[in-house]
Amino acid sequence: MNARRPIPRAERIARLAARHLLDAGDGAGSVTEVVERLVALHATDPATVHLSVAARLRQPERMAALMDEALYGRPPALVRMLAMRRTMFVVTRQDAPAVYAAAGQQIAARERTGLLARLAEGGGWDEAWLAAVEAEVVAALGERGECSGAELARLVPGLREQVVVARGKPYETRQNVASRIIRTMAAEGRIERRRPVGSWISGQFRWAVAEPLPPRPVDEARAEVVGAWLRAYGPGTEADLAWWTGWALGVVRRALGAVGAEPVQLAEGPGWVLSGDADAAEEGPGPAARLLPALDPTPMGWRDRDWFLPPDHRAALFDRTGNVGPTVWWGGEVIGGWAQPPDGTVVWRQLADRGREARAAVDERAAHLTALLAGVRITPRFRTPLERELSAPPA
Predict the structure, then answer these.
(1) How many CA atoms lie within 13 A of 132 on its CB side?
(2) What superkingdom heads the lineage (predicted)?
């Protein structure tokens, strides 16, 4: 491959800061704008969705009202779905059909295959039994409108059944089938998560019948997803895309060809941008401080992160399986991490010194986030060494 031209680290950082709303610009005016700019928000941890948006909103104090409307309005502007890498994401309803066709439906098929195997092995139930239970779930939601998982289990007897796991082994146990059945139906887009049972940081949701997504050709959808990634995260390498999507390299290369991506040269090697984007100039309004939550899509956007996150900081900011914790940003690069001790204040630690202006700006952002959370304490689902240290009670 003949690279068109080199794109140095400073230019990549400038693109990242501008396109991910991490510079000193005005920020986004809506939740949908944030999601569109980032393609998808990680939603494994419910707090991530809200804090990723708040960090980029023009008026972060309106986060709660704007998120409620976007996620739970009629119809909602955003959709939660299992997609790339079998991870829970939030995407716009407009992009949901392409994301589902490109990644979600394959995951849903694997979920169903695994569920049927578990039911047959652990309880002796077959596909017909499962179909009957699922029909009862849809009927109950059609009658009630919305139900929590616990309410559905009371209304649908089949959801109260249990399967034997690891039969004959010393660690044999029994597990309820409800969560696996509901998860599979959600993965297939038949039911959807509505408001949480509890506050906005709760991981337990009410369920409702979902509006069907229009079908899309798989190859066309994959090209669309790759184009969206390049628009938001490019330039990037084939390895970055393969990691982010969870696809084989051959699939990534076909999608790059279909979208007409252009080659460039990065410090890591050959990279790609959208056609016409190689010479795009990003002259933003200057650096700014941002406090991003655990699993934020920006630090999770590439496999190789050395150009914005020094390798020496990885041990402090990531867990052992590659999940990033809360990060502190200045001018499009990671300079530290943050957490909340028991009193709920937001505290941070500097890992890279970028001067007095940067430290003062981060202190101000930390104070603003403390006020925004108003006593709500966020504990990431995946704990990282620095987050654990900063959030520990004082000795």
Answers:
(1) 7
(2) Bacteria
